[in-house]
Write a structure and sequence with these properties.
Length: 114
Amino acid sequence: MNEMVTIPREEYDRLRAAAEDLADLQTYDRAKVALAAGKDELIPAYYVNRLLNGESPLRVYRDLRGLTQAALAEKAGVNRVTVAEIETGRKKGSIATLRALAGALGVALDDLVE
């Protein structure tokens, strides 16, 4: 299997660009399927920017879901004060608490950990 093919650089660059375009299209198609199946969601830029600016992920996702601290606490089965303390950074929250909050918000645990 030591066969070798030589092609002009221009043709190589064109083929490489086409391969990258194909990979991008395949990634796009997988994302569309995941969205349609409910396995993924689109997050508006406003909320993404808040996350990128370092705001508490718990607060951002709670706002995105339209929940008050009390409503999230009730839904997750945790104390409202605990939610407030995690949002303000006064407490980190236990794994069990963060897991309950993530479940109530419908996000992965990793989404809440900075």
